[in-house]
């Protein structure tokens, strides 16, 4: 046994002892298996193929498979997926309308057309989508483009399909230095934030990836591969997804899909409601982030919801949703570009979850 | 837990074959890995209830996707299962706020005086793990969960040597940190 082995065994013993002290037990709570069993039908679906079947697609779930002619099972899966999207979208729309206590639209406006005249906004998604080759390049080495010091690991060694996970270090953000943004940073960042908001309802994954931090792009793609993924599998996955619209269940701000008729949403254009975040020497290190609240308005310019970067409601219409999206944009240390940090952009994600208020 | 007459020593893949036809035949695999999974989730979340929920979700996903497991791709069932857990944890970081460090919770609990030294050391171990680079930390966590270097290499998409090196570096760092006392 090596010294490292002995140290590791010692560490394992300590951790197991910590677990016993923490949970007061040395086994697994019985209710876990009961929870599992309650969610799985007694008899597995009969269409489950035998083990001998070759895995022909990524093991991801909720992933729209490619439409390959001559493969009825693929079409069937596609229809199932589409049906799921419709159901989820319907639920999201219903929840939004209920929260707002408003009637649904009849003219199917995308919610961005009736924006108040004085509010800056990208009204349509005109972002050039990434190509498959560009996405592949990002997957191979996102640090060439993105927040290169986001994860300071030095073990990444180039074009291999190795993901280093992003750990949304909300605690670090909470403790980070926050200041009023410089005007230039604010203007650059809010343009990206508004492009993102404008694109979310209709964008393809290729467009969303173009706006998002490349390290997140890599992470979100490779997360669909439980085991080592080879290049052809990853390429196939990207090809199958790049033109697909961002579905509701993949959208961190899914209620934005469901703005009522004439309503629009933009990043809060008040610089006083934004924050520059300097995470300092952390896993989110060395980068500059700008966080925004949102401004939701009716077509007459009246405010439905206004929030700040800390997810606090500055104003909201009676009966409106109290969800307070936070949009976080970071600047690439590689090329100075601004990218959305999707893992930090959510409903008051940076702060509200600090206090474990749940979803 | 009843195992439907399945020999508990049966290989994972053989149990998977049976579980595809009868979900209850999955029980031996659950028994085999649930504790290490639950411990891992407790370490990651610092929240016993959340850890139980995530552990359940891992096994639900595994059962739902059991037909996708293919041993010929080189991954063992255990590596496949913990890869699911790893992905689930990553997804969950966006939705859940990690709780206080396990050791902090331990520290808050009144306990026998003779355990005080252990608690202090566990505080340091826990904080030292947090201080590791992500890859090294994950390597240690997966090793603590019982995975082999090869299995971790499969999950991380790297080589066994890289995993061994990450573990070695991590242990050296841990030794220094534990020796110095970790400041958090």
Strand content of chain A: 5-15%
β-strand number of chain B: 0
Rg of chain B, Cα atoms, Å: 18 Å
| CATH topology type of the largest domain in chain B | Rna Polymerase Sigma Factor, Chain: A
User: What are the segments of chain A in which pLDDT stays under 50 over at least 5 consecutive residues?
Assistant: 45-122, 147-170, 281-286, 347-359
Overall mean confidence score, pLDDT of chain A? 63
Could you tell me the radius of gyration of chain A in angstroms?
Answer: 23 Å
CATH architecture of the largest domain in chain B: Orthogonal Bundle
Classified in CATH, the superfamily of the largest domain in chain B is: RNA polymerase sigma factor, region 2, helix turn helix motif
Flag low-confidence runs of chain B: 94-111
Q: Describe the global form of chain A.
A: globular
The percent of residues in helical segments of chain A reads: 25-40%
The geometry of chain B reads as globular
Q: Which structural class do the helices and strands of chain A define?
A: alpha+beta
Q: What's the total helix number of chain A?
A: 10
The tally of beta strands of chain A, per DSSP, is 10
Instruction: Spell out the helices and strands of chain A N to C.
Output: HHHHHEHHHHEEEEEEEEEH
Count of the domains of chain B: 2
Largest sheet of chain B: none
Which oligomeric form is depicted? Answer: heterodimer
């Amino acid at each position: 046994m090596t010294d490292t082995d002995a140290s590791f065994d010692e560490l394992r013993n300590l951790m197991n002892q910590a677990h016993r002290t923490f949970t007061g037990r040395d086994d697994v709570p019985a209710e876990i298996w009961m929870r599992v069993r309650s969610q799985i039908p007694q008899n597995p679906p009969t269409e489950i193929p035998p083990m001998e079947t070759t895995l022909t697609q990524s093991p991801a779930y909720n992933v729209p498979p490619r439409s390959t002619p001559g493969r009825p099972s693929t079409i069937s899966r596609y229809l199932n997926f589409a049906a799921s999207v419709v159901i989820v979208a319907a639920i999201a729309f219903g929840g939004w309308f209920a929260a707002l206590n408003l009637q649904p639209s009849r003219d199917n406006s995308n919610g961005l057309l009736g924006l108040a005249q004085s509010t800056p906004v990208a009204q349509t998604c005109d972002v050039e989508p990434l190509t498959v080759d560009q996405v592949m390049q990002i997957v191979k080495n996102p640090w060439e483009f993105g927040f290169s010091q986001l994860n300071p690991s030095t073990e990444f060694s180039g074009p291999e399909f190795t993901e280093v996970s992003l750990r949304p270090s909300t605690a670090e953000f909470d403790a980070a230095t926050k200041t009023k943004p410089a005007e230039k940073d604010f203007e650059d960042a809010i343009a990206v934030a508004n492009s993102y908001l404008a694109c979310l309802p209709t964008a393809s994954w290729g467009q969303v990836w173009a706006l998002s931090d490349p390290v997140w792009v890599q992470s979100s793609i490779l997360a669909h591969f439980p085991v080592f993924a080879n290049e052809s599998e990853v390429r196939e996955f990207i090809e199958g997804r790049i033109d697909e619209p961002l579905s509701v269940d993949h959208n961190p701000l899914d209620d934005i899909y469901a703005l009522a008729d004439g309503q629009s949403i933009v990043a809060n254009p008040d610089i006083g409601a934004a924050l520059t975040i300097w995470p300092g020497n952390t896993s989110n290190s060395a980068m500059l982030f700008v966080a925004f609240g949102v401004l939701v308005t009716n077509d007459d310019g009246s405010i439905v919801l206004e929030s700040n970067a800390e997810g606090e409601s500055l104003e909201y219409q009676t009966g409106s949703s109290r969800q307070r999206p936070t949009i976080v944009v970071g600047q690439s240390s590689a090329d100075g570009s601004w990218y959305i940090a999707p893992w930090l952009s959510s409903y008051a994600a940076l702060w509200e979850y600090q206090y474990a208020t749940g979803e | 837990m009843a195992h439907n007459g399945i020999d508990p020593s049966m290989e994972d893949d053989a149990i998977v074959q049976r579980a595809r036809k009868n979900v209850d035949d999955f029980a031996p695999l659950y028994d085999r890995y649930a504790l290490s999974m639950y411990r891992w989730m407790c370490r990651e979340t610092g929240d016993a209830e959340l850890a139980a929920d995530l552990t359940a979700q891992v096994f639900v996903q595994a059962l739902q996707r059991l037909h996708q497991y293919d041993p010929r791709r080189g991954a063992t069932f255990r590596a496949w299962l913990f890869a699911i857990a790893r992905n689930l944890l990553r997804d969950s970081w966006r939705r859940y706020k990690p709780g206080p460090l396990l050791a902090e919770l331990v520290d808050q609990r009144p306990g026998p005086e003779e355990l005080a030294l252990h608690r202090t050391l566990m505080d340091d171990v826990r904080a030292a793990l947090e201080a590791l680079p992500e890859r090294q930390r994950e390597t240690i966590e997966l090793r603590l969960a019982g995975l082999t270097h090869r299995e971790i290499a499969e999950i991380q998409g790297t080589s066994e040597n890289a995993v061994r090196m990450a573990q070695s570096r991590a242990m050296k760092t841990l030794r220094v940190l534990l020796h110095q006392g970790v400041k958090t």
